Amino acid sequence: MILEVCNLDYDYGGKPVLQDVSFSIRPGEMLGILGPNGCGKTTLLKNLNKNLSPKGGCVLLDGSDLEDRSKKDIARNIASVPQDNRVGFSFTVREIVSMGRMPFQSPFEGNSSEDLAIIEDAMEKTGVTEMADRFVNTMSGGERQKVIIARAMAQTPRILLMDEPTLHLDISAQFDILELVHSLSRSEDMAVVVVSHDLPMMARFCDRIMMIHDHRIRAIGKTEEVLTPENMRTVFNVDAEFHVDPVTGKRSVTMHGSTTGRAKSTGKPN
């Protein structure tokens, strides 16, 4: 076990956002967090690296409460890929990836030979080495996302947190990004936590799924155990079913339509 969430509660201005959330994250797995807008997915992710602090319960890293650890210490173990990957300045790819070494450095300290080797390794593992001297703000969304992942890998993390990593990417880039992260989770024995709305992509790439509904965990477990028609109707108001694609052998979800829309079209209650 790397990270354990114990009876976590969180609220904004007294309004409950997360209630009694408990689960653990294991090395080398991808955990997908699914749920409708406003259910607390991103809030939960921010509690996992101390960007937010629980109002109740705790988050433990190797048995130690995150609240007792410094931000720098947490960043040496947990890296994040935010929802927005835009870069406002003309940094090169190598400069962006180098920023991943900051938690290991003193202020104004340059990169050591070890840092430089880790930076090159991170770029190689994420396939951005040939782009090293390009300016990030001239790149496509998919290319830029790989650079942000490379920056995270330069932190040599044990846990990678990703918030909607395929948002605004075209279909090909979505597959590229999730295949890359899935491969890294295995090769680096790194736990990956992904927040997403994309049921089919999460079904394909995640080892386990957590579904949040009404601020609580509705279900958590193997993908096929969680992505049931009943859960998908309750949480997302869609008729959908989990299956294994007969062509690729990959797990997938087929969505047949909104239960709300069907009720309106038939005149029958949902």
Structure description:
The chain has 270 residues and is of the alpha/beta class. It has two domains: 3-77 and 157-266, 3-Layer(aba) Sandwich (Rossmann fold), CATH 3.40.50; 87-156, no CATH class. Helix content is 33%, strand content 28%. It has ten helices and twelve strands. Strands 6-7-8-3-9-10 form a six-stranded mixed β-sheet, with helices on both faces. α4 packs across α5 and α5 (141-153) packs parallel to α6 (171-187). The longest helix has 17 residues, at 171-187. The model has no long low-confidence stretch (mean pLDDT 92).
Essential attributes:
single chain; 270 residues; alpha/beta; Rossmann fold; 6-stranded mixed β-sheet; 4-stranded antiparallel β-sheet
What proportion strand? 25-35%
Question: Level of helix content?
Answer: 25-40%
- Which residues sit in consecutive blocks of at least 5 with pLDDT less than 50? none
What is the CATH architecture descriptor of the largest domain? 3-Layer(aba) Sandwich
Overall outline: globular
Class derived from helix and strand content: alpha/beta
The neighbouring-strand order within the major sheet is 6-7-8-3-9-10
- Strand elements, count: 12
User: How do the helices and strands follow one another from N- to C-terminus?
Assistant: EEEHEEHEHHHEHEHEEHHEEH
Q: Which CATH class of the largest domain is shown?
A: Alpha Beta
Instruction: Write down the CATH topology of the largest domain.
Output: Rossmann fold
Average pLDDT over all residues: 92
CATH level-four homologous superfamily name of the largest domain: P-loop containing nucleotide triphosphate hydrolases
Quaternary organisation of the protein chains: single chain
Quickly count the domains: 2
Question: Main sheet, how many strands, which sense, barrel?
Answer: 6 strands, mixed
The total count of helices amounts to: 10
